[in-house]
Write a structure and sequence with these properties.
The protein has about 375 residues and is an alpha+beta fold. Among the domains are: about 120 residues, no CATH class; about 90 residues. It has seven helices and eight strands. Strands 1, 2, 3, 4, 5, 6, 7 and 8 form an eight-stranded mixed sheet that branches. The N terminus is likely disordered.
Length: about 375
């Protein structure tokens, strides 16, 4: 009994272990299937992403190829002319702007000698004794503590509009502004500007070119010059900006005229260059309708159109010879069939006539039945 129980237990354990193994195997198979499905889905999504760009490229290429050749050539010419006109206009604007700015710097530098020659008189003037008038320069003297000593020159634009450069309010900072080196600063507009026109407002808001100079006194103990203050000399850039703006407008108008003229001229030249291809197209349509005697107008063979015309004419000549040979063979075949049918029809007609004559004349039955069968066969075959 114990041995039988043991055997039963072993059998049950074996069955359970096999069941567990089968369940484990099925779960592994399911996991493998799910992993494979995920990998397939990922691969498919990647392939779809990769296929999108070629499809877009193919669609764009088809759209471009659908445009006529003359239109594409004119568009390319327009694009080249536009880029060239833009680059030339920008270069002229930069060159003229730099030249005018350098000229302004030279004018500011020329005033430095005047400042050094009249440093004492400029320093002794009071800030309330400023010279306001229709001049182009602005001049202001400050000490080392950024206190305004005098403002000898203040330009007056129009009416009560006064435009001055924006100077450092927190004293001279040597890290930002270097002496004897011009720099550009925005403008500060003072006065009632409601009654002036837009041109005057624009000129008043134009930036300034400023040159900072140092002035000082000789030390009694040595010959060294001690810095006592700074002189700000400025010149408005309104004239330079107006000149550059006018030049830019002229460049834009000339560029537009050149682009339009270039487009018309390019269209005429391209149409003239493609006219032989139009003639080739018309000749091909006539040949397609059945007129094989047409030929493409000749042109110098050293050109692309001339080489194409010579090749097409040679091909058309061979095609015409082939069609002529085919027609000759067809006519010969027709004559042969006609002659053969005539030659075969004559003896058969004679046999048929004799057979009918024999049928009409025969009166004796019996022995001639076999002959009658033969004659019937001849009549049927004829």
């Amino acid at each position: 009994m114990q041995s039988s129980n043991n055997n039963n237990d072993n059998t049950e354990s074996t069955i359970s272990s096999s069941t567990n193994n089968s369940s484990n195997n099925s779960s592994r198979d399911d996991s493998d299937v799910s992993t494979a499905e995920k990998s397939v889905a990922i691969a498919q999504s990647k392939s779809d992403k990769k296929d999108k760009k070629p499809r877009k490229t193919c669609w764009l290429r088809r759209r471009i190829n659908a445009i006529p050749l003359s239109t594409r050539l004119v568009a390319c010419t327009l694009a080249i002319l536009t880029v060239a006109a833009f680059c030339i206009s920008l270069s002229i604007q930069q060159l003229v702007g730099n030249y005018l700015l350098e000229k302004t710097d030279v004018q500011l530098a020329s005033q430095a000698q005047f400042v050094y020659d009249n440093a004492d008189s400029l320093r002794m003037k009071n800030s309330n004794q400023s010279s306001v008038g229709p001049n182009n320069y602005f001049m202001q003297v400050r000490d080392t503590h950024n206190k305004i000593i005098s403002t000898p020159l203040i330009p007056k634009i129009k009416g009560s509009i006064v435009s001055v450069p924006k100077l450092p309010a927190d004293g001279f900072d040597s890290k930002k502004i270097v002496t004897h080196k011009p720099y550009t600063t925005p403008a500060i507009v003072k006065g009632n500007n409601n009654k002036v026109d837009a041109i005057t407002k624009k000129a008043a808001k134009s930036p300034w070119r400023v040159l900072v100079l140092t002035w000082g006194q000789k030390n009694n103990y040595n010959s060294e010059l001690s810095v006592s203050g700074y002189v700000y000399i400025a010149l408005s850039l309104s004239d330079q900006i107006d000149t550059v703006s006018t030049l830019t407008r002229y460049c834009i108008m000339v560029s537009i005229a050149v682009i339009l003229f270039g487009a018309v001229f390019a269209a005429i030249i391209i149409q003239s260059a493609l006219r032989p291809l139009k003639r080739i197209e018309k000749t091909a349509s006539k040949i397609a309708s059945g007129d094989l005697s047409k030929r493409v107008p000749s042109a110098p063979e050293n050109t692309e159109v001339g080489s194409l015309a010579a090749s097409l004419n040679s091909m058309l000549a061979r095609i015409e010879r082939g069609f002529n040979e085919q027609e000759d063979m067809t006519e010969k075949m027709k004559r042969f069939v006609s002659d053969a049918s005539h030659e075969l029809r004559t003896p058969l007609a004679a046999i048929h006539g004799y057979a009918e004559l024999y049928t009409m004349w025969r009166n004796m039955p019996g022995e001639q039945e076999r002959a009658d069968d033969s004659i019937a066969h001849i009549k049927a075959s004829s």
